[in-house]
Amino acid sequence: MKASVIIPVYNEAGTVAAVVEKVRGVPVDKEIIVVNDGSSDGTREALRPFEGSPDVRVHHSPINLGKGASVRIGFTLVRGDLVIIQDADLELDPGQYPELMGPIERDEADVVFGSRFLGGRGGSPAGRAGGASYLGNRGLTALTNLLFGGKLTDMETCYKVFRASILPTLKLRALRFEIEPELAASFLLGGWRIVEVPVAYQPRSAQEGKKIRWTDGIDAVKTLVRLRLGR
């Protein structure tokens, strides 16, 4: 199966080229879709060597729209059989794609979440990202399970892999980081087969460039409640 890897990026000039090269090096059939979300730090220049490459497509948004908007733009460009979302910050290793794609390729699942809270892989546990971040993730995951009857351990994971045939069923509105709960709730509401596989994770701090903030947790709760109410 061919994977369409969507890389939303905003002000990651120091890491985006390395991420693209890491994705390129993964031994799976794939296309790479980079959505530059109006970066102002040199990200556009860092992506210039990839423009025109047969395996990489780069879209430049003229203004900063948010991660959710960038992911949704990427969805419109998908040509593969599977969709993989890859952050541009090197917290998650693309080398884990074969394990993430496996359950779908074996027809054991329609959607795979890469869980940072399951054991079995190396790297830093998600809890080391900080107490507040850990508790926030766990709380939002518990709320998702409660509202939508799920059994997830890591709703907020970036690594959501799913069949491209699901895309037409998704009615997404997220602009920012609420794309994660919106996708998770949509998969659960759609009745798609979801499995989780453990992934290694190397968290970075706000000082190192991490962009999600506590206010994004409030937006996530609002998104989950909106979807539960069918709005």
Task: Note down, in words, how this protein is organized.
This protein is an alpha/beta fold and 231 residues long. It has a single domain (3-228), classed as Spore Coat Polysaccharide Biosynthesis Protein SpsA, Chain A, CATH 3.90.550.10. Helices cover 33% and strands 17% of the residues. It is built from seven helices and seven strands. It has helices spanning 16-24, 43-47, 67-76, 97-105, 131-148, 179-189, 214-228; strands spanning 3-9, 30-37, 56-61, 82-85, 111-115, 160-163, 194-198. It has a seven-stranded mixed sheet, sandwiched between helices. α2 links the parallel β2 and β3 (56-61). α5 (131-148) runs parallel beside α7 and α6 packs parallel to α7 (214-228). The chain starts with a strand and ends with a helix. The relative contact order is 0.18. The model is unreliable at 122-129 (pLDDT under 50).
Give the neighbour order of strands across the main sheet: 3-2-1-4-6-5-7
Q: Major sheet, described briefly?
A: 7 strands, mixed
Per CATH, the class reads: Alpha Beta
User: What's the domain count?
Assistant: 1
CATH structural architecture: Alpha-Beta Complex
Structural class: alpha/beta
**What's the total count of β strands?**
7
User: pLDDT below 50 for ≥5 consecutive residues: which ranges?
Assistant: 122-129
CATH superfamily: Spore Coat Polysaccharide Biosynthesis Protein SpsA, Chain A
Task: Tell me the Rg in angstroms.
Answer: 16 Å
Shape: globular
The number of helical segments is 7
CATH fold name: Spore Coat Polysaccharide Biosynthesis Protein SpsA, Chain A
